Amino acid sequence: MRLTGSGSLVRSVVSHPCFPGSRDGGAPAGYDNVTRDALGRQASADVRYSPCARSRRQHGVPGFMMTLEMMQAFFSDTRQKNIEAGKDWSIDEVCRWSFFFVDEDGSALLPVARHMESLGYTVVGVTEPDGDEDPFFYLQVDKLEQHTPESLQARVEALYAIAEQFEIADYDGMNVVAA
């Protein structure tokens, strides 16, 4: 998997019941993706949440959207993980939020990138497909901002609408790290 942008993170699914080699399979489908740095180490203060476009299509779940209850659980889980890991950042403060869009055609993501940039997001790059296992290009855009579960839910609904507006495969989740 190659990142064709300015960032150094690559995505690696380490716990996902829909993918071969998933280690724990106990998390709800598609919830527990972990971002890794270029050397394959788990990013230290990083929480990734994605319902995974590929698994939704595979399992015939059209129109799936993250719910407010999922957002509340995400915030609660992140707080708990940070406490357990002794992290000194809070998801309730200003954080760096990364948002991901996917499509099987990388060029289809370019208009989305330009649009997101016009909305004040930083375009990090497009990750190329990882062979047959994951045939999707991933566009990552970042923004420093503070969210509540409710404000994040509103943001996510807007991002799903952008994916639909630009007729790409999907909005695919978010990542949060300390600002």
Automatic annotation (TrEMBL):
Tell me where in this chain the Regulator of ribonuclease activity B domain is found. 91-175
Q: What is this protein called?
A: Ribonuclease E inhibitor RraB
Q: What species is this protein from?
A: Luteimonas terrae
